[in-house]
Design brief:
With 378 residues, this protein is of the alpha/beta class. The chain is built from 14 helices and 16 strands. Helix 5 crosses helix 7 (194-223). The longest helix has 30 residues, at 194-223. The two termini are 22 Å apart.
Length: 378
């Protein structure tokens, strides 16, 4: 029997924060005691919260493709990504791999199968600190989407699929003018090329999106896993997602779509960087506003792993009525439930002892230690 006792802690439970201690036996939470207890592993008054659960991070791509034209060894990229994920307090992560590429030079989108194999190999060898699953992001208006998706499914443990369509004027950028403003402002495309670029993307959507969607939905149903919509901009988009069988609405871009997703009982997922930065980088609705509406269910670190913890501790300061216990649920139990992982995400008897020790003595929350199934991994 492997036993661990964490004492002198602020325990963030599902609905309250208490002072007390935790008893962990064989990787599971076996006891929760309030008040003073015999000193064992003294956490010095720090917070103990459930390990964070991340459903959508494309951060692995920055390790695999660190510079234009550079493809880093896949398993090394996975290990570096995992180390940063664990340091951010994330103990369960859904690595977002893309199927479907607009650009033949897009390394990450072309190599979902390769990365899935690397994740699986590293996990099988016991090299990873966090528990890793795969979130397959399917870009519908691309010629290679279905083939790439099938290869990635064959290579890894796919637990979540999302339907994406980044066609200009459609979802993330409903307005063509907003699309032009963003891409020209970021110098992502030359002004003289942007109209041809938009026309080409609209043609690809017309040619591939509908047929690809049917195939990806069939694949999702065959696997029996959760489906997410992506960048819903209107209530019509949400109605479409409900018809498709989605259970998660990722990054709704407007108050209208966030309200519709909430009304249809989809789990509304927003970006934690949006909370930390104070707004959307692409000019869409802010995650704080969605929280104020009472429609927020899940936060995702998206492109900055450290943002998940920062956002959870910032929300109680930003939104009236959101306590720390409630904010922590957005990054632990709610994403776990949406992904069908009911064994983690909460400090409760019988749950997995995926835990992090967080200090806020210096102002910002700092991860001091991380345990996965009762074993310290950081």
């Amino acid at each position: 029997m492997n036993e661990l006792r964490l004492s002198n802690a602020k325990l963030v439970l599902a609905t309250e924060v208490i002072s007390g201690s935790l008893n962990i036996i064989d990787g599971l939470i076996a006891g929760i005691d309030r008040g003073a207890s015999p000193k064992s592993d003294d956490v010095e008054g720090d917070f103990i919260i459930p390990g964070l659960v991340e459903l959508h991070t494309d951060h692995l791509e920055s390790h695999f493709h660190p510079r234009p034209g550079v493809e880093w060894p896949a398993e090394s990229a996975v290990l570096a990504h995992d180390a940063q994920i664990a340091a951010a307090g994330i103990t369960t992560v859904f690595d977002a791999l893309r199927a479907g590429s607009f650009d033949p030079n897009d390394y990450s989108a072309r190599n979902g199968e390769h990365l899935a194999k690397a994740i699986h190999a590293a996990q099988a060898k016991g090299q990873l600190r966090a528990s890793h699953y795969i979130h397959l992001r399917c870009e519908l208006p691309c010629a290679d989407t279905v083939d790439a998706a099938r290869k990635t499914v064959a290579a890894g443990d796919i637990r979540l699929i999302s339907l994406m369509d980044h066609t200009p004027g459609y979802r993330q950028f409903v307005s063509i003018e907003k699309f032009k403003e963003y891409y020209l402002g970021k110098k992502l495309i030359l002004p003289e090329m942007i109209d041809d670029y938009i026309a080409e993307k609209l043609e690809l959507q017309n040619r591939y999106a509908a047929a690809n969607k049917i195939e990806i939905l069939n694949l999702t149903r065959f696997l029996g896993i959760s489906l997410a919509s992506h960048d819903d901009a209107t209530s019509g988009h949400v109605d479409e997602a409900v018809e498709d069988g989605a259970v998660i609405a990722e990054f709704p871009t407007s108050a209208e779509s966030a309200e519709a997703a909430h009304r249809h009982r989809l789990a509304v997922l927003m970006g934690a960087p949006n909370i930390v930065r104070g707004g959307s980088h692409s000019g869409n609705i802010s995650a704080t506003e969605v929280a104020e509406m009472g429609h927020l269910d899940i936060l995702s670190s998206d492109y900055v792993p450290a943002s998940l913890l920062l956002a959870a501790f910032a929300l109680p300061e930003k939104v009236e009525g959101i306590t720390l216990a409630k904010a922590v649920r957005f990054v632990t139990s709610k994403p776990a439930a949406a992904a069908g992982l009911d064994d983690r995400g909460e400090i409760d008897i019988g749950k997995r002892a995926d835990l992090i020790q967080v200090s806020v003595k210096t102002g910002s929350p700092v991860v001091r230690r991380v345990w996965r199934e009762g074993v310290r991994v950081l």
